[in-house]
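Limitations
The structure tokens in this dataset are predictions for the assembled complex, not deposited experimental models. Users should treat interface geometry with appropriate caution, especially where small molecules or nucleic acid strands are included. An illustrative entry is reproduced here so readers can see what is and is not provided.
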Amino acid sequence: MAVLNVNGKSLEANADARTPLLWVLRDTLGLTGTKYGCGIAQCGACTVLIDGVATRSCQVPLNSVGRKKITTIEGLAQDSKLTKIQQAWLELDVPQCGYCQSGMIMAATALLAAKPQPTDADIDAAMTNICRCGTYKQVREAIHAAAKA
Amino acid sequence: MTIQTSLGRRSFLVKTAAVVGGLSLGFRIPADDDAAEAAEIKEINAWVVIHPDDKVVIRIARSEMGQGTLTGLAQLVAEELECDWSKVTTEFPTPGENLKRKRVWGEMGTGGSRGIRTSHQYVREGGAAAREMLIAAAAAEWKVPASECTAANSVVTHTASGRKLGYGQLAMAAAKLDPPNAVKLKDPKDWKLIGKPLKRLDTLDKLTGKQVYGIDMRLPGMLIATIKACPVHGGKLKSFDAAKVEKMPGVKKVVPVDGNAVAVVADTYWNAHTALAALPVEWDAGKLGQVQQDDVTAMLKEGLDANEAFIGNKAGDAKATIAGAAKKVEATYKFPWQAHACMEPMNATALYTPEKCEVWCGTQNGEAALAAAAEAAELPVSKCEAYKLILGGGFGRRGRADYVRQAVLIAKQMPGTPVKMIWSREEDMTQDSYHPTTMCKMTAGLDAENKLVGLHVRISGQSILAALSPQSLENGMDSRVFQGFMPGGPEAAYGYTVPNLLIDHAMRNPHVTPGFWRGVNTNQNAIYMECFMDEVAEAAGQDPLDFRLKMLKPKYAAVLKATADKAGYGKKLPDGHFHGLAQIMGYGSYVAGIAEISVSNDGVLKVHKITAGTDPGYGVNPWLIDRQVAGSFVYGLSASLYGEITIKDGAVEQTNFDSYNVMRMDEMPEVETVLVPSGGFWGGVGEPTIAVAAPAVLNGIYKATGKRIRELPLMNHDLRKGA
Ligand code: FES
Ligand code: FES
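Predicted assembly:
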């Protein structure tokens, strides 16, 4: 039994030690906002923050997490108050199907924490998540908008 | 938060509740406690429910997969309802309810960009009828003629006295009235919501992780399954050794599915996945297991000159004209299989008992999902139900119900236990129904004045209908192969006037399953026609735009012209930049694209900008149309750049995004939408523009490099000059 630090709470996770964090979050802890898209670190749909670093949770075995701070999409808004990134996403209506957007928002959250005023090149480098609906243009605009907010 | 996945008291409600350990989704079957609530909430008619607090619920029959149809359809209903847009929410009626109510919501299928264009009339009438009933209820209350009352912003006003009643106050009485016999719809010039760039109604939950997709479904006692089907389509399951994995963590059962697949049912996806990977399985692919990619190419090539072919469009005598022409141009093109790769892999949750079968899934065709569930369960449709969830992408793939059938067949082997079946990305990529593969031989004849007088288009290759819907073939012919090439009709007519024309199809069907893939046959047809038109224009010594405009029918020409003007076609571009253009009619809309590209000395293509023109008749929501156009280019360009499914020993070779690449942020061109709705018809939006991206880019590449790329994907070509 592992005890994880997720979104500021201590949560018990009863799963095999090698289980990827993605599936622990989704199946064991019921935090289904983090998505499965490829399982091989290609798509970024499973992105969470681990000690503030954007991390593809499909590649993180449960037994490597310890007490590191995990933040998932469910942990961003506090008391229903959206973060400025979520707010920018809302104002620009970024999502289409929305399936990739948890990962996009988590990656953008880490990017803006590291670089509050990112250039287009910074965005290209940090935002390698796949969106099959093609929201790239809106994602870029929303990151710039959030940086200004 | 409550997500109502279906209707009224008979419905299931999915509730999210904070519990220790995070969020969990609990399920409840509404019982008597909902009856009181239901008594106050009145359905005015099938499309409109109004709550006492003025909340308006608009029922959406079509599926929402990101394309925005939910918002667009709500706009259509709300326009006529005259309700306060800020009070509007939506819900999906279930396919089972639709059947019980004699298909009061009409067709639920969501493909072919039909969501709005085939239902705008009756959904607006639904809104108008509800408005009339609300007005009648107010008039009765005030004992005045209804003609003295008006409705606006969810309030009915008696003009003379200034008395007012809100929709919430009137709903109960209005619901008891008979619907009007006929309603008059507004003149488009009076529209207040249609045509406005309103924001989507379904954004917030997609930003907080709350949106429930099929893959997120949770039911009490639910188990999770994952499946592997014979890697060679059409092959069979020979045997598997369940004993080898049954003791692995969490494994509950290993089950055969449909004679061609095997599934592991476990407590979590990871445990199911791990056990399935370790399961010894033997397949019987028969002769299909020996088919190689070269065999497929040879099969298609043979069709290019075959004597027999289905004729899709014919005028005059193309062959004789070309034979006697002053100048002849010929080229052969090829288009590969491409995967859908929806961001959310296929999945469905099923609960089976001998009396009843229910499924929860993202589907583009709720009624087909219901029918598939009933067939797999071997129960009457009336004892089954399908609950539609938001789709993590569809693109045509989720119009098929193969995954629903599988989920039910698994659940049937565990009666009473809900089972969520999830395909791995690898399964999703190898068991797709791919964009069909075809080749095309184009032959043109020019007269002495360099006019195009004869054109023969010979398509050879796969028919989607033959594989997925053979009953839709007409005397063996798949007319959809001719999308964009049809002699007429409101859907996909050919835009050029060529006096001697022959467009025919030699059907050649390799064993790999084809399917509807955003844009469908317009994708390759636009490449064949529009790239070849550039070749012919060059042979004629004319500019590609001028050459086309001489032959294009008015609506086609108007869109192409507007797009070219907006893009500054013919004006000076930055050094090394070139314009390529293309046009087509698809899904009832006229579209054109101008791509601005450059190719560096080391052969790297950059698509700087695509200017996209579209005339869909009416543009319901320009904000969403803009996003559909840009999104269609990402999907289409991803395929043009990288999309290629190949087979080896009968099986698909690409398994995940590492072997099937797609476009990312850094490759995204600027997209400018030129919306030129000319009115009087309703065309689609989700698909049409996708087809023009690739040919416009290819035509630009020729100008930049002198290379005619006639086979996709581009990654297989060396674009360096002289290479
Ligand atoms: S699921 Fe982890 S990167 Fe795709
Ligand atoms: S919004 Fe659908 S995959 Fe990104």
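Some entries come with short summary sentences. For this one: The domain at 84-148 of chain A is CATH 1.10.150.120 (DNA polymerase; domain 1).
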